[in-house]
């Protein structure tokens, strides 16, 4: 019986020692998994580290909770739409017809890709080379009517659904309304812009 108790204590102590090593190994593995990326990340050059830190900050920014009122969204949509329109104006070859060409549409697409959640179109007054949405046609008709009545016309923002905002702006050349810019912006992209 004494031998059985001694053997049992021996194995009990052995198992405790093995459990201790297993726990120590798990702790070391956990520390390595936490610290490993930081240690390995330190091996890159400085510009690569800055880029990684920038991506991390952008990722964190996307997950922040931001309170934005409808007025904030409309105001930002106006500012963003005006800014995009100015960028497009700088790319123009001097005529409004430029935006009805393949090159013009490619430039609109590239500017739209720079801004998150933005789709840009130029809707011509005479022939609708695109398939405009009903609201775009209504706004173009309203611009045409107001312009024909000698009223001043300017940019406009409409909430088109719970996820998007439509910014429109008339294009006038030689006293004639040639069309309008239609810039659809996602509310998510607008709200992200509020944090900048």
List the helices and strands and how they pair.
Layout (H helix, E strand, L loop, with lengths): L1 H40 L4 H17 L7 H22 L10 H13 L3 E7 L9 H15 L7 E6 L2 E10 L2 E11 H8 L2
Antiparallel strand pairs: 1-4, 2-3, 3-4
General description of the model:
The longest helix has 40 residues. The chain folds into two domains: 61 residues; 125 residues, Beta-Lactamase (2-Layer Sandwich), CATH 3.30.450. With 196 residues, the protein is α+β, with helices and mostly antiparallel strands. A four-stranded antiparallel beta sheet has the order 1-4-3-2, with helices on both faces. 16% of the residues are buried. α3 crosses α6. The model has no long low-confidence stretch (mean pLDDT 80). It starts with a helix and ends with a helix. The protein has six helices and four strands; from the N terminus they run ααααβαβββα.
- Radius of gyration in whole Å, from Cα? 31 Å
Number of domain modules: 2
The total strand number stands at 4
Helicity range: 55-70%
The residue ranges in which pLDDT falls below 50 over 5 or more consecutive positions are none
Mean pLDDT: 80
Protein structure class: alpha+beta
The CATH topology of the largest domain is given as Beta-Lactamase
Gap from first CA to last CA: 77 Å
CATH architecture of the largest domain: 2-Layer Sandwich
